Amino acid sequence: MGFLRVSIVLALWTVAVSGVTVQDYFPTLENNVTQIRWAHAVNNQKFLNNTLYNDAINMIEGDVVFGTLTSDTKTKLPIMAHPPNDTSDLSLADFLAQVLKYDTNENYNATYKGVKLDFKSIEALTSYLAFSNIKTYTDAFPIWINADIFNGPDNGVATVDAKAFFTAVKSVANTSLSLGWATGYNTTNPNITAYDSDQTKQMSDAITENDVSVPITFAVRAVYAAESIESLTGLLKIHDNSTLTIWSSDGDKVNVTNLRSLIFAVGLDKTFIDVPDDLLSQLNLDDTSGASLIKMSWVSLLTALVLFFRNVRYN
Ligand SMILES: *[C@@H]1O[C@H](CO)[C@@H](O)[C@H](O)[C@H]1NC(C)=O
Ligand SMILES: *[C@@H]1O[C@H](CO)[C@@H](O)[C@H](O)[C@H]1NC(C)=O
Ligand SMILES: *[C@@H]1O[C@H](CO)[C@@H](O)[C@H](O)[C@H]1NC(C)=O
Ligand SMILES: *[C@@H]1O[C@H](CO)[C@@H](O)[C@H](O)[C@H]1NC(C)=O
Ligand SMILES: *[C@@H]1O[C@H](CO)[C@@H](O)[C@H](O)[C@H]1NC(C)=O
Ligand SMILES: *[C@@H]1O[C@H](CO)[C@@H](O)[C@H](O)[C@H]1NC(C)=O
Ligand SMILES: *[C@@H]1O[C@H](CO)[C@@H](O)[C@H](O)[C@H]1NC(C)=O
Ligand SMILES: *[C@@H]1O[C@H](CO)[C@@H](O)[C@H](O)[C@H]1NC(C)=O
Ligand SMILES: *[C@@H]1O[C@H](CO)[C@@H](O)[C@H](O)[C@H]1NC(C)=O
């Protein structure tokens, strides 16, 4: 019995198609995914309203906590909030329903939205995975499931156990995974270290052991990623089609030169950038000097083609 069940689960896991990917959803941007624009920490109704109707935004990032709504402080459910907060005026179910309504309303002539959900606990994740209408969402728009499953730089302590995470997400194979390491950061006296090779190996081994076949992105904090070119490019090489997502907190002291080197080493087609605007402008991604010439000539060629077809379509 046990064996049969395991076999069926494994079979489903292997054949499952991977839902809507971000690259499929924004095809004109797929050769340079650094163009995809993010709204970060969209954890309340007002911010969600503003984000949905902001045509500059492609991806909405929000944090999910197992907590309570301000309107009902008794019932626990997955809500949009960032710890230490555990109440919100917006539940995860409401958040997803509103994105679905927005993305499927043909009367809008606007930018569709994809979603990245940063789950802050295993309870938040498993209660999302138990939504009876989850397939309606995963079939309609890209949803990344993110969690910090391993300890990371500056004594970060994982918020979701890796084993429990991979077991949980197997029930909904049709979705992309965003895998991260927890990070610490001392704003008065930052301890700027790197994602070391032990940390990337731990991640890599877990992916292999769990036979992950859905698209993977590695979520890394800019300030530490900038110091980790070797370990991160190594990790991406091991896992076919995996990508990097660079995020940052306001005020992090990022070495911009090194971060640019990382982005061009990984490639503009494989690096999502969800950072505050001031860091984004400092990255100066128009300037390709210092980037690998061979890689760039391909990217330029593809971009020229994309721009060409885009013009054809719009004119
Ligand atoms: C995965 O998503 C696609 C649409 O993107 C859908 O056609 C398919 O039925 C889904 N598969 C599963 C197992 O949910
Ligand atoms: C969000 O938008 C809806 C519909 O447009 C509106 O009814 C609601 O009052 C808005 N909420 C906030 C907090 O702005
Ligand atoms: C907690 O909620 C308050 C009020 O909504 C907000 O101002 C604050 O930024 C939130 N804290 C975090 C860590 O998100
Ligand atoms: C819809 O968007 C296209 C392309 O940006 C624009 O040319 C067109 O005027 C828009 N139509 C409406 C009704 O806003
Ligand atoms: C700095 O971070 C490293 C790991 O990234 C950790 O081993 C070390 O203890 C930290 N140093 C201090 C002073 O916290
Ligand atoms: C941050 O660094 C300062 C100065 O070294 C230290 O006094 C403080 O305790 C540190 N804060 C944390 C949370 O580690
Ligand atoms: C990687 O992408 C290529 C092209 O889209 C595809 O043929 C291949 O199966 C993918 N590999 C994995 C492991 O997903
Ligand atoms: C960034 O790192 C490089 C090489 O590690 C170093 O030479 C440079 O001084 C650093 N830049 C800043 C602003 O710290
Ligand atoms: C890629 O996108 C960035 C915006 O994020 C832009 O500055 C850069 O010029 C683009 N590069 C290419 C080669 O398309």
TrEMBL record:
Ranges where the Menorin-like domain occurs: 32-279
Keywords: Signal
The organism's place on the tree of life at top rank: Eukaryota
Pfam families to which the protein is assigned, alphabetical: Menorin_N
Leader sequence residues: 1-19
The family this protein is said to belong to: Belongs to the menorin family.
Identification of the protein by name: Menorin-like domain-containing protein
